[in-house]
Specification:
Strand content: under 5%
InterPro entries: EmrE-like, Small_drug/metabolite_transptr, Small_multidrug_res
Keywords: Cell membrane, Membrane, Transmembrane, Transmembrane helix, Transport
Main location: membrane
Protein name: Guanidinium exporter
Number of helices: 4
Largest sheet: none
Subcellular location: Cell membrane
Length: about 110
C-alpha cells in the first residue's frame, strides 16, 4: 500500500509543478491555488508512505516520479524538446527508480 500511496504522491508532484508553471510566478489565482493544494496532498502522501518505506527510497522515488513526469508533461503539453540526450536522462532516472524499488525491503 505504501508504494501505491508514494506513486500517487509523485503524480501530485507533477500536478503542482505543471500548475506552478501555469501560475506565471504565482500571478494567476487558480493555477496558484492548484499548486498549493497539490503540494499539500503530495507532501501528505509522501509523509504517509514514509511510515513504512525508508527515507532514502521514498524521497528518491517521489522526486524521480516528479522529475520524469514533469519532463513528460513539458514535452507533451508545453512543446519542450525531447532530444536523445533528454530522453536518455529520463530513462536513466526511471532505471534508478526501478533499482530503488527492487532494493527496498518494504
Amino acid at each position: 500500500m505504501a508504494w501505491l500511496i508514494l506513486t500517487i504522491a509523485g503524480l501530485f508532484e507533477v500536478v503542482w509543478a505543471f500548475a506552478m508553471k501555469q501560475s506565471e510566478g504565482f500571478t494567476r489565482l487558480w493555477p496558484s491555488v492548484v499548486t498549493l493544494a497539490a503540494m499539500l496532498v503530495s507532501f501528505g502522501l509522501l509523509s504517509w508512505s514514509m511510515r513504512t518505506l525508508p527515507l532514502g527510497t521514498a524521497y528518491t522515488v517521489w522526486t524521480g516520479i516528479g522529475a520524469v513526469g514533469a519532463f513528460l508533461v513539458g514535452v507533451v503539453f508545453l512543446g519542450e524538446t525531447a532530444n536523445a540526450l533528454r530522453v536518455t536522462a529520463a530513462l536513466l532516472i526511471v532505471s534508478g527508480l526501478l533499482l530503488m524499488k527492487l532494493s527496498s525491503p518494504a
